[in-house]
Design goal:
Strand order of the largest sheet of chain A: 5-4-16-15-14-6-7
Shape of chain B: globular
Mean pLDDT of chain B: 86
Radius of gyration of chain A: 35 Å
Radius of gyration of chain B: 23 Å
Order of helices and strands of chain B: HHHHHHHHHHHHHHH
Structural class of chain B: mainly alpha
Number of helices of chain A: 33
Low-confidence stretches of chain A: 1-16, 738-746
Oligomer: heterodimer
Largest sheet of chain A: 7 strands, mixed
Low-confidence stretches of chain B: 458-463
Largest interface: A-B, 56 and 50 residues
Mean pLDDT of chain A: 85
Structural class of chain A: alpha/beta
Shape of chain A: globular
Distance between the termini of chain A: 119 Å
Helix content of chain A: 25-40%
Largest sheet of chain B: none
Number of helices of chain B: 15
C-alpha cells in the first residue's frame, strides 16, 4: 500500500509538470513588451486559471475540513470572541493616541510651568503650576507675585487634589435628572425673559472680569439683584475702614517696615489674605543669619491660639470682648504719651504701659493689627492708633478694596432670605458657594432655597445647595478655566488654565453669565475682551497680554490711597455671658469647601495636631469648670439654635472662650468629607458672624474619638527644642540657646572625623531648618504630600498612628516656671522633623535585606523594591520619621473605591516618584527626584550643580524660608553657612548618628520690662 | 565503671522492662486508651487552629495593617509572641542536650515530651517573623542565596542572625528528636498489631534491629547532636535578644539582655513543661515514670531561673537610673506609672512574686499549686515581652512621636491560632508517638538494678 501510494504521488507530479516547450511557444507568439507573472501564467495552465479566478486562493475549503475539526475551530472562535469582549476587564485596554504634531515646547518627561492664580474669598494668590505631559501635577507659588513670593499655603497645595477629585460634579442635573447645557439654557433664558425677581448669589468677588459680567447681567435684566455671601467675609475690616476714612479701604501691611507689632486678636499669619507675604516679611524681620542681631517684636492678644500667637514674643490669651478695652487702653496711652493706671480686663496696666512705650519708641515702624473677627469699631481704632504712631505710609498703606462690592453682605443676605421665604424670588442663580450649608443658621437658608420658583447652582461638587436647586451645573476648577483676580494689595493677575476642562459639561461662572445673557463666549475671549476694553495694559495689547500670562501678574499694585482716619469715641461692649463662643475658619478645609479633600482633612491642625475633625476648643481651666475632658460632648445653645460638639482641651486657649471651627459636618459632600466632624453653622448668626457673647454652654452626654497625631501636651521638649532670647544672644556671641552644656559642633570628644565626606567632589546634601522662622503653618506637609505621592490613610488609620506624612511639625510647649498654671499660657514651639539623613544612620545596619543604604552624596536611601517590611529600621530610627504602608494605602484611599472614575486620581501622581505598595517602608528622600533633575541639567552643561539649584518641595513652599537645602561640602553654600550658625544644633546629637539636617534654635525677643 | 547512685524514686512502682514497654507503647498501640478528654481537648485545639488559618488568610489578603502596629511601635504582638514561643521551646533543648551531657538520668522520662514541645513551639514562633513582614512572599530574600543581582542580605542585621539561629535551632532539634525516636519506633513496630502502624513505624525506624552496631552508632550520633544543641540553648535566645540589645531604642539597648533572655526562656520553658506534663501524666497513667521527683526538680529549676529573671528586672531599673539618660528614666517611669503600668506590675507579680512559693517543699508537692504557679509564669513571661517590645517603643527620644499601641482582634486571633496549632500538634504527638523515651527508661531501670519485684517508695502529690 505504502509503495503504491508513493508511486501515485510521483505520477501526480509528473502530470502537473510544466511543459516548457509550450511556454516558449506561447512567448514566441507575443509581440511587444509582455509582462508575465510566472511560467504557469504563460503556460495558461488550468491550475493557474483557477488560482487567478479564486478570490481567496489559499483558503481551505470548508468541504475539506472534517466535522471534528470544524467543531473545534468553531468552539475556539466563539471562546476567543467572548474573550475579546473582556477587554478592559482582564485584557489590557490600550488606547494610544500619538501626537500627530508634537506640541511646541512639550518634551515628554520634561515638566512645564505656567503662571495662574487661585482666588479664595475674593483674593488671588499667584501660582506656578507644574504640568507634566499636559496634566497639572504640582502647584507652586509664583516667586514674582507679591502675594506669594514663591510660597503657598496648604490649601493651595491641596487645590490640585480638588481638581482631580473623582467626586467632582460631572453632570448637568435638572431636579436630579440628567439635563443638557442646551436644555438648561433654554429653560433659564425663558425664565429670565419672563422677568420677576431675579437674584444672583455669589461669594465675595474680586475678579474684575467676573464683576463686569455681573454688571452686564444686571443691566440686561433690570429686575435682577446681586447678593454676595462669603462665610469668611471681611466685614469688620471693610466697615472699620469706612468708619475711619469714610469709605471702605484695604489696609496693606508692610512687616519689613515694622519693628514692633501688636496683634489685637489678629492672626495675620493664618487669617489675612496677604498672609503668605506677611509671613515672609515678618520672618525676614526676625532672621538672625550671620551676625544680624536685630529682631522685630510681636505682642499678641489672642482669643484662640493661632499661628501669630505661636510665634509671638509675648502672648496673652484674652476673651474677644476684652480686646476693645485693650485697644482703647493703648490708644489712651499713645494719646496721653505716657503711662496710665488702669488695665484692661485680665491685662494689667503695667503691661499696657510697656507695650505703649515700645510702640511709641518705634514711631513709624510699629504696627497695630485688628483681628478679622473683631468689630468694625476696633478696626477703626487700630487705624487711628497706627495713624497716631505715624505708621500710615510706612508699615501700613491703603488701597482701594479688592472686593468689587465692599458692601456689608449680611443685610443683603438677610433680605434675600426674607424674599425667598416669602416666595417672592422667581429665579435664584447661585454661582459657587454652598449657602444651604454655610449660611448663618438663623436664616434657615436651606429651606429658603427650596421656595425659589427656579434655582440654579453652579458648583464644583453636587453639594447641599445643589440638591435643593432646580438645576445643578458643574463648575470648572480654576486650573481649567480662564479668569482673573486681584491680590491682597490689589495686584491684578490673569487666571490661566493648565488643561482643557476635564468634563465637557463644566462651565465657569463667566461662561454661564455670558450664556445667560444670550452672548455665549468662551472664558478666553471674555477675559481678553474685558482687559482690552478696560485698557488694563499700556502699550501693545498682545505683547502685554502675553507678558501678563507669562509673569502671572500685571506689575504695579493697586494705587496707594493717602488717608487720615477720624475716630469717633466708642464705648466697647462688655462681656455678658459666662462663655463667649468664637467662630473660626478651619486652617485646612476653610469654610467647608475643601471638606472633600483628603490632604486637607488629614493635615494636623497647628496647635491641636487634630485631623479629620473639628472640636470645641476650651481652656484647661474652663474644662475643669464645665467638668469636661477631651472627647466629651459640649452642648452650646443660643437663641433657639443648639449644637452638640466634642471638646478638645487646649492649653493656651483663654478661659471662658469656646472656639468652634467652621467647615465640618457636611451632609452632601463627596466620599471623603461626608459626615466628618460637626457642623457649627446652625449656631452662627447673620448679625454676629464671629462671636456669640450670650451662648449657654454645658456638658453634654457621650464620648467622641478624635484622631490626633500627637498624644501629649508636651511641656517642654527637654533638650529637643532649643529656645533662647535675643538678649542672651547679644550678650554671648557664641551663645547656644537654652542647653549650652550640649556644646556646639565638634565640642563632644569623638573618635569619628568631624564630617564624613567620601572621596571625590560629589555634592554632600544637607538641610537646615530654622525654627525661628517656622510658624507651623503646615504648607510644607501638604507640599511634600503632593510632590511625593503620599497617600491619605483616613481617620481610623491616623488614630492608630499610621499617618504617612514624610514631614511632620512637632509642637512642644514652653512654659514659664514662675507661672501659677503652666497650662494657661504656654508658648508653643514648632519643630519640623523629616528624615535627617544621618551619616551613620541607625536604620541601615538593622535592615536584613539592605533595603536602606547610603548614597555617595550622603542620602539615606530607601529602596522600595528591595524592602520586605520588617519595620526594624523604623524601630531603630530615633526621629521616628519612617512611614510604613501597613495597608495598600494608595488603593484603599476612599476616592479609589468607587468604580471607573478613580482612575482620574492616577493623573495626580508625580511621574518622577514611585507609588509605594503595601508592606513597604518609606520616608523623606530630600526630594531625590529634584536632585537628579538638577544633576542632569548640570551634566548637560558640564558644570557642578549650583548652590540653590536643588530646591526641595518643603523648602519651595515655605512662606518664611525656614528650610534651606544644598551642598554642605561646599563651604560657600548657604546651607553650609547656616549649618555652622551659632544657633545650629543637631537634633539628638548625643546619639552620634550625625544628622545631615541641622535645626536652628528659636530665639524670642521679649520686652525685658514685661515679666512672662 | 561504677554506676553513680541514682535516686530510686525516679521510677516508681513494680517495674520490669515489659511493663515499661507496655505502659508507654500502649498509648500508641492501643488507641482505645484515648478517652473522650483527648477528643475534647483536640477538638478545641483544632478550632483554635482554624482561627490561625482565618487570621493568616486575612493577613495575607489585607496586609499587616489589620494588626495594631503603628509607627513608633513597629513590632507589637507579632514579635512578643515570636519571642514567647521561642522561649517556650528552650526547656526541651536544655533537658535533652545539657542534661544529657551532664549525665542527669532524671531527664530520661521527660526529654521526649519536652523536645516535641520545642519543635512545635519553634514552628509557632517561626510563623511570626515570616508573616509579620510587610511582604511575606519576599521573605526568602533574608536567606543568602545566589541571585542575578549579586545581592546578599545585610549580615550586620540581627534579623539575619535570627534567621540562622532559629533555622539551625529548628533543624538540630528536629534531628535530635527523630534520632532519639528511632529505637522506640522499632519497639512500636514490633508491638503493634495494626498493619498501617507497622508499615509507617517500620519505615521510620530505618531498619532498626537493636544490633550492637546500631546501638553504637546511635549513641555516637546522639551525643554529637547533644553537643551541637548545647550551644544552641544559649545562642538562640541570645541572638533573639540581640534584635533588641543591638538597637538604639530606649529600653531595648541593654547589655544584660542575652543572659536575661536565656534565663527567661528556660523559666518559661519549664513552666510550660509543667503545665502540660501534669495533666498528661494523669491522663495516661504515667505517674510511675514521671514522678513527683521530676516535678519537684523542675519546680526548683523554675524557681532558680525565675530569680535570675527577677535580677534582670532589678538591673533594668538600676541601669536606667545609672545611665542618667533622660529618655531611659522617662521610659522607666512610663513603665511604672504610664498607661501600661498594669502590664508591668502584673509582670512583677507573675514572674517575681508568685514563683517564690516554690521555696516551700510542701508546695512543690502540691500539683495544683505547681500548675497554677507555672501558668502564671507563662503569662508573666508573655507580659515581660510585651513590656519590653511594644511598651518601650511607645516612648521615644522625641516626645512628640510618642504614640500608644493597642493590639487588635486579629492580633489576638493569630495568637490564639498558634496556641491551637501547638496543642493540635502536641495531642497528635501524644496519640501517635511514644511520648516517653522507652528505651532510655529501661536503661535507667537497668542502671537502678534491673526489674523490681516490689514497688519502690511511692510518693504521690496531694493533688
Amino acid at each position: 500500500m505504502e509503495i503504491a501510494g508513493q508511486q501515485e504521488l510521483v505520477m501526480d507530479s509528473s502530470e502537473t509538470q510544466l511543459n516548457l516547450e509550450a511556454v516558449r511557444e506561447k512567448l514566441a507568439g507575443k509581440t511587444g513588451k509582455e509582462f508575465w507573472r510566472s511560467l504557469e501564467e504563460v503556460a495558461e495552465t488550468q491550475e493557474f486559471q483557477a488560482w487567478v479566478e479564486d478570490e481567496f486562493p489559499h483558503r481551505a475549503s470548508i468541504s475539506e475540513v472534517d466535522r471534528r475539526s470544524f467543531l473545534k475551530y468553531m468552539g475556539a472562535s466563539l471562546a476567543l470572541a467572548g474573550l475579546s469582549g473582556c477587554r478592559g476587564m482582564f485584557l489590557p485596554q490600550k488606547k494610544i493616541v500619538p501626537y500627530v504634531n508634537q506640541p511646541e515646547e512639550l518634551v515628554p518627561g520634561k515638566p512645564l510651568f505656567y503662571a495662574t492664580v487661585m482666588s479664595l474669598g475674593g483674593y488671588a494668590t499667584g501660582l506656578l503650576v507644574e504640568q507634566a505631559t499636559g496634566r497639572p501635577i504640582k502647584i507652586e507659588g509664583n516667586p514674582e507675585h507679591p502675594a506669594s513670593l514663591g510660597a503657598t499655603d496648604a490649601i493651595m497645595q491641596g487645590a490640585l487634589l480638588d481638581f482631580y477629585d473623582p467626586d467632582r460634579s460631572q453632570d448637568i442635573l435638572e431636579e436630579g435628572r440628567f439635563g443638557t447645557w442646551d436644555s438648561f439654557l433654554a429653560a433659564a433664558r425663558a425664565r429670565l425673559a419672563a422677568g420677576g425677581a431675579i437674584r444672583l448669589l455669589t461669594g465675595t468677588i474680586g475678579s474684575p472680569v467676573l464683576a463686569a459680567q455681573i454688571e452686564a447681567f444686571l443691566r440686561q435684566f433690570p429686575s435682577a439683584k446681586w447678593v454676595q455671601y462669603e462665610p469668611g467675609a471681611r466685614e469688620g475690616a471693610l466697615e472699620g475702614a469706612r468708619q475711619a476714612f469714610g469709605r471702605p479701604l484695604n489696609p496693606v501691611y508692610h512687616f519689613r517696615e515694622a519693628d514692633v507689632v501688636v496683634s489685637l486678636d489678629c492672626d495675620f499669619l493664618g487669617d489675612l489674605p496677604g498672609k503668605l507675604r506677611y509671613a515672609r516679611d515678618f520672618a525676614d524681620g526676625r532672621r538672625l543669619e550671620g551676625n544680624d542681631r536685630t529682631m522685630n517684636r510681636l505682642y499678641a492678644f489672642e482669643s484662640t491660639p493661632g499661628l501669630a500667637g505661636g510665634v509671638a514674643d509675648h502672648r496673652w490669651p484674652v476673651r474677644p470682648s476684652e480686646v476693645p478695652a485693650i485697644a482703647q487702653g493703648l490708644w489712651a496711652r499713645i494719646n496721653a504719651g505716657g503711662d496710665l493706671a488702669e488695665g484692661a480686663g485680665q491685662v494689667p496696666a503695667a503691661v499696657l504701659n510697656s507695650i505703649a512705650k515700645d510702640l511709641m519708641a518705634h514711631r513709624g515702624r510699629s504696627l497695630v493689627l485688628p483681628g478679622e473677627g473683631q468689630p468694625a469699631e476696633l478696626h477703626a481704632l487700630a487705624h487711628a492708633i497706627n495713624a497716631a504712631l505715624g505708621s500710615i505710609g510706612t508699615s501700613v498703606t491703603y488701597t482701594q478694596p479688592v472686593e468689587i462690592s465692599p458692601e456689608p453682605q449680611a443685610p443683603a443676605l438677610r433680605e434675600l432670605a426674607g424674599e425667598l421665604h416669602a416666595g417672592k424670588v422667581e429665579a435664584l442663580i447661585i454661582l459657587g458657594g454652598n449657602p444651604a450649608y454655610d449660611a448663618p443658621g438663623d436664616l434657615k437658608f436651606a429651606e429658603a432655597i427650596k421656595k425659589a420658583a427656579f434655582s440654579v447652582h453652579l458648583s464644583l461638587f453636587g453639594d447641599e445647595t445643589s440638591a435643593l436647586c432646580t438645576w445643578h451645573l458643574p463648575e470648572t476648577h480654576f486650573l481649567e478655566a480662564w479668569g482673573d483676580g486681584r491680590a491682597y494689595d490689589g495686584t491684578l493677575s490673569i487666571q490661566q488654565p493648565l488643561i482643557e476642562p476635564l468634563y465637557p459639561t463644566a462651565h465657569s461662572a463667566l461662561e454661564l453669565l455670558s450664556a445667560l445673557r444670550n452672548k455665549p463666549k468662551g472664558g478666553y475671549d471674555l477675559v481678553r475682551e474685558h482687559h482690552r476694553a478696560a485698557s488694563t495694559f499700556s502699550g501693545d495689547f498682545e505683547k502685554a497680554w502675553r507678558k501678563a500670562l507669562h509673569d502671572g501678574f500685571v506689575p504695579g499694585a493697586g494705587a496707594v490711597v493717602a488717608v487720615t482716619p477720624t475716630v469717633t469715641r466708642w464705648a466697647a461692649p462688655a462681656a455678658s455671658g459666662e462663655f463667649e463662643v468664637v467662630f473660626k475658619l478651619d486652617p485646612s478645609v476653610h469654610d467647608g469647601r475643601f471638606a472633600n479633600n483628603g490632604w486637607m482633612q488629614e493635615l494636623p491642625r497647628p496647635w491641636t495636631k487634630l485631623t479629620w475633625d473639628n472640636a470645641a476648643l476650651v481652656s484647661p481651666g474652663s474644662a475643669e469648670k464645665l467638668g469636661v475632658q477631651t472627647g466629651q460632648m459640649l452642648e452650646i445653645e443660643q437663641g433657639g439654635a443648639k449644637i452638640v460638639t466634642p471638646v478638645w482641651v487646649l492649653p493656651g486657649q483663654p478661659d471662658g472662650v469656646v472656639t468652634l471651627t467652621l467647615g465640618f459636618g457636611r451632609e452632601k459632600c463627596g466620599i471623603i468629607g461626608q459626615e466628618v466632624g460637626h457642623n457649627v453653622y446652625p449656631l452662627r448668626k447673620s448679625d454676629q458672624p464671629w462671636l456669640l457673647t450670650d451662648a449657654s454652654v454645658k456638658k453634654g452626654s457621650g464620648q467622641y474619638k478624635f484622631a490626633s497625631t500627637q498624644i501629649h501636651h508636651d511641656l517642654g521638649g527637654k533638650d529637643v527644642v532649643r529656645v533662647g532670647t535675643l538678649e542672651e544672644m547679644r550678650a554671648n556671641p557664641n551663645f547656644q540657646p537654652a542647653h549650652a552644656h550640649h556644646g556646639g559642633h565638634g565640642d563632644l570628644p569623638s573618635l569619628y572625623p568631624k564630617e564624613i565626606f567620601p572621596e571625590g567632589d560629589l555634592p554632600q546634601w544637607g538641610m537646615t531648618v530654622d525654627m525661628n522662622a517656622c510658624i507651623g503653618c503646615n504648607a510644607c506637609v501638604t507640599a511634600c504630600q503632593a510632590e511625593n505621592n503620599t497617600p491619605v490613610v483616613g481617620k481610623s488609620q491616623v488614630a492608630r498612628g499610621r499617618e504617612m506624612h514624610w514631614i511632620r511639625i512637632d509642637r512642644y510647649y514652653q512654659t514659664d516656671k514662675k507661672s501659677d498654671d503652666p497650662l494657661a499660657n504656654p508658648q508653643p514651639v514648632f519643630q519640623p522633623v523629616m528624615c535627617v539623613h544621618c551619616e551613620s544612620a541607625p536604620c541601615e545596619p538593622v535592615c536584613p535585606v539592605a533595603a536602606t543604604v547610603h548614597s555617595h552624596e550622603g542620602l539615606n536611601q530607601m529602596i522600595y523594591n528591595r524592602c520586605i517590611g520588617t519595620r526594624y529600621c523604623s524601630n531603630n530610627c530615633p526621629y521616628k520619621v519612617r512611614r510604613f504602608n501597613f495597608l495598600d494605602y494608595p488603593h484603599l484611599q476612599k476616592q479609589f473605591t468607587g468604580g471607573e472614575r478613580p482612575k482620574l486620581l492616577k493623573l495626580l501622581n508625580n511621574p518622577d516618584v514611585s507609588v509605594r505598595s503595601r508592606g513597604v517602608m518609606e520616608k523623606c528622600t530630600y526630594c531625590v527626584q529634584r536632585i537628579n533633575e538638577a544633576r542632569i541639567e548640570a551634566k548637560k552643561e558640564r558644570r557642578p550643580i549650583r548652590d540653590g539649584e536643588v530646591v526641595t518641595a518643603c523648602q519651595q513652599v515655605c512662606p518664611t524660608r525656614a528650610i534651606t537645602f544644598g551642598n554642605i561640602a561646599d563651604k560657600d553654600s548657604k546651607v553650609a553657612h547656616l549649618r555652622h550658625d551659632p544657633r545650629g544644633y543637631l537634633l539628638l546629637e548625643e546619639l552620634n548618628v550625625r544628622p545631615r539636617t541641622t535645626h536652628l534654635a528659636k530665639v524670642r525677643n521679649p520686652n525685658p520690662e514685661i515679666q512672662a | 565503671m561504677a554506676i553513680p547512685q541514682i535516686d530510686p524514686s525516679l521510677i516508681e512502682g513494680k517495674q520490669n522492662y515489659g511493663t515499661i514497654d507496655e505502659m508507654i507503647a500502649s498509648v500508641v498501640t492501643d488507641q482505645k486508651r484515648h478517652k473522650r478528654i483527648w477528643f475534647i481537648v483536640f477538638g478545641l485545639a483544632f478550632l483554635l487552629m482554624n482561627c490561625l488559618i482565618v487570621a493568616v488568610t486575612w493577613l495575607l489578603y489585607r496586609g499587616i495593617g489589620i494588626w495594631g502596629n503603628n509607627v513608633p511601635v513597629g513590632w507589637g504582638l507579632d514579635i512578643v509572641n515570636f519571642v514567647w514561643w521561642i522561649g517556650i521551646g528552650h526547656a526541651g533543648t536544655l533537658i535533652s542536650a545539657i542534661l544529657l551531657l551532664l549525665r542527669q538520668p532524671w531527664r530520661n522520662s521527660i526529654n521526649r515530651f519536652a523536645e516535641a514541645m520545642t519543635i512545635f513551639a519553634v514552628m509557632c514562633a517561626g510563623l511570626y517573623p515570616l508573616l509579620h513582614t510587610g511582604r511575606p512572599w519576599l521573605a526568602y530574600w533574608m536567606f543568602p542565596y545566589t541571585n542575578i543581582l549579586g545581592l546578599w542580605p545585610q549580615f550586620r542585621s540581627p534579623l539575619i542572625w535570627d534567621v540562622f539561629a532559629v533555622s539551625t535551632y529548628f533543624t538540630v532539634s528536629l534531628l535530635f528528636w527523630y534520632i532519639g525516636l528511632v529505637p522506640d519506633l522499632a519497639t512500636i513496630r514490633d508491638r503493634t498489631r495494626n498493619k498501617f502502624a507497622r508499615t509507617i513505624c517500620g519505615a521510620a525506624s530505618l531498619g532498626w534491629r537493636g544490633a550492637g552496631r546500631h546501638w553504637h552508632r546511635y549513641e555516637q550520633a546522639y551525643m554529637l547532636l547533644a553537643g551541637l544543641s548545647t550551644p544552641l540553648v544559649l545562642s538562640v535566645h541570645s541572638i533573639v535578644s540581640f534584635d533588641f540589645a543591638v538597637s538604639i531604642v530606649p529600653g531595648w539597648n541593654v547589655t544584660l539582655f542575652p543572659p536575661y533572655f536565656v534565663a527567661g526562656a528556660v523559666f518559661a520553658g519549664f513552666a510550660m513543661v509543667l503545665n502540660l506534663l501534669i495533666p498528661v501524666r494523669a491522663m495516661y497513667g504515667l505517674k510511675e515514670l514521671i514522678t513527683m521527683k521530676h516535678i519537684d526538680w523542675m519546680a526548683k529549676i523554675m524557681l532558680a531561673t525565675g530569680l535570675i529573671v527577677f535580677y534582670g528586672y532589678i538591673c533594668e531599673v538600676f541601669y536606667a537610673w545609672y545611665s542618667a539618660t533622660n529618655v531611659e528614666l522617662t521610659l522607666l517611669m512610663w513603665r511604672f506609672t504610664g498607661p501600661y503600668m498594669w502590664f508591668y506590675w502584673s509582670l512583677i507579680l507573675c514572674n517575681g512574686i508568685i514563683p517564690q512559693l516554690m521555696w516551700w517543699p510542701k508546695l512543690r508537692k502540691n500539683l495544683v499549686v505547681i500548675w497554677i504557679v507555672a501558668f502564671f509564669v507563662n503569662i508573666g513571661m508573655w507580659l515581660e515581652r510585651f513590656v519590653i517590645i511594644p511598651v518601650s517603643l511607645t516612648k521615644n527620644y522625641l516626645p512628640a512621636s510618642d504614640r500608644l499601641y493597642m493590639p487588635t482582634f486579629w492580633d489576638w486571633m493569630m495568637f490564639a491560632g498558634t496556641i491551637g496549632m501547638f496543642m493540635v500538634l502536641l495531642f497528635l504527638f501524644i496519640r501517635f508517638l511514644p511520648s516517653i523515651n522507652i528505651f532510655e527508661v529501661k536503661d535507667l531501670l537497668y542502671k537502678m538494678g534491673g526489674p523490681r519485684t516490689k514497688p519502690a517508695h511511692h510518693e504521690e502529690g496531694q493533688a
